[in-house]
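Homework help board

Subject: predicted structure for assignment chain

Our instructor gave us this sequence and asked us to write out the predicted structure in token form, then describe one feature. I got the tokens but I'm not sure how to describe them. Can anyone check?
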Amino acid sequence: MVKLSVRESGPGLAALKKALAEVRGSSLRVGLIAGKGGDTSHTDDSTRKMSIADIAAIHEFGSPKRRIPERSFLRSTFEENRNRYVNLLGRLLRQLAEGKMGVEKLLNVLGLKISTDVRKKITVEGVKPKNAPATIAAKKSDRPLVDTGQLARAITYAVERGLGDKSE
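My token output:
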């Protein structure tokens, strides 16, 4: 979470405070979201139906019971790019303060960037560890998390506005 405070005064201070209050009262979620593909069904090799979000959680955190190692694609993307996202947010907040963009656009730009990076990690950069030899033989691919492409396509973002400041 990014904490902001304003200590300067000037003619645009009231507008800046109002914009920051809107940002604080908003939320950006990135990942697999119900109603946006995350709740889509997927049938695995044993014909069990699971949602894409269930499959994502199994891979993000691993499942020792199923002998599936942790293959973080959400948390690791965010951690690897944290400084870039903070810098982007700073540039976007500057544009917000100058009246060049609204809160909705700010959150959409940030959400699009992060969700694109997560999809890129899955489809282009790859997630470690590699698949087991039996999985490679069955899939005819050594790329983890890439089989049908359904998981990567389901990565998106959602902006929620008007949540109020929940930090108090």
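Reply (TA_rk): Your tokens look well-formed. For the description, you could write something like this. The chain has six helices and four strands. That's the kind of observation they're looking for.
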